[in-house]
Design a protein that fits this description.
It is built from nine helices and ten strands. By secondary structure, the chain is α+β, with helices and mostly antiparallel strands. The strands form three sheets. It has a five-stranded antiparallel sheet. Strands 6-8-9 form a three-stranded antiparallel sheet. A two-stranded antiparallel sheet has the order 7-10. A hairpin with a 3-residue loop joins strand 1 and strand 2. Helix 7 packs antiparallel against helix 8.
Length: 294
């Protein structure tokens, strides 16, 4: 074997070795890299799942909603604990009296809370999950007539179908926890109860005052000035995911000619009676200057 042939073989072996090493490292690098294709699919599935959970419920979802139990029944409305298609538990409300249906009490409640949610975000308000306004069976409900007989017939039919979500109007909300489940008399008890509010609880009432003062369209007051309002009582509030929030809408006052500052001052006077804080400051500036430290 001559010298040139020997050198050629050596060069060939050297190049082959380099190629093998490069190929080894290429495979090693590829193996260590994340699978962006699978990750993209996972992220997309998570986004779809999150979107499904956030989607407002409608009549097409009714068949997939499970009634867990009846929670309470008043003169006008009945409430149920339900399991949503997402697996989350929620509150379902339905009218059981002609007056509730005729005056749109439940649809008004839904619109009110939906406006708050759209304005301030679901993370800062009582969650609103959706509604279904399904038609009543033929001859079941007649709102055209306003006679006493017609109203009684309507109320009777509403009670018959009260748990049948496929007929009539149903609204779905976050199932918060009432601050108080029973009405309690006496300032002594209420003052004692309020002493257990944390700084975060108290600040939640400031948020309530501000959200209503800045309500879209016109400011809302927690009661009409110079008139009594039951919103000074803790029974009117619940603990939601967002914190303490106002839940009973009966005595809210839409003040068309009020400024934000006027509504906020009035609301602050009312919520300070709930938490027993004298001369409470409900401004955003105060909350920003006094952040709640967990």
């Amino acid at each position: 074997m001559n010298e040139d042939t020997s050198k050629g073989k050596m060069l060939f072996l050297l190049l082959a070795g380099v190629f093998m090493v490069k190929n080894f490292y290429d495979h090693a690098i590829l193996a260590s890299m994340p699978d962006f294709t699978n990750n993209s699919i996972d992220i997309e599935q998570e986004l779809i799942e999150e979107s499904r959970k956030q989607k407002m419920l409608g009549c097409n979802d009714i068949q997939n909603i499970e009634i867990i139990r009846e929670l309470g029944k008043g003169k006008a409305k009945v409430t149920y604990e339900v399991k949503l298609p997402s697996g989350e538990f929620a509150l379902a409300k339905r009218c059981i009296h002609d007056n509730c249906l005729r005056k749109g009490l439940l649809t008004g409640e839904f619109r009110h809370l939906k406006t708050l949610q759209d304005q301030y975000g679901k993370e800062n308000t009582i969650g609103v999950y959706g509604e279904c306004d399904a038609p009543y069976a033929k001859g079941g409900i007649d709102l055209q007539k306003g006679t006493r007989t017609s109203k009684k017939r309507n109320s009777r039919h509403l009670r018959i179908v009260e748990s049948d979500f496929s007929e009539g109007y149903t609204a779905f909300f976050e199932m918060g926890v009432p601050l108080l489940t029973k009405w309690r008399d006496g300032v002594k008890f209420r003052k004692c109860f309020a002493s257990y509010f944390t700084d975060a609880d108290v600040d939640s009432f400031r948020v309530i005052a501000r959200q209503y003062a800045g309500y879209a369209g016109s400011p809302i007051m927690l009661g009409q000035p110079e008139y009594f309002t039951d919103n000074i009582w803790a029974e009117q509030y619940i603990i939601a995911k967002a914190g303490a929030r106002h839940a009973d809408l009966d005595m809210l006052y839409h003040c068309q000619n009020c400024t934000y500052e006027e509504a906020l001052a009035h609301n602050c006077i009312i919520v300070q009676d709930v938490v027993f804080h004298k001369e409470m400051n409900c401004s955003l500036a105060f909350s920003l200057e006094h952040p709640i430290l967990n």
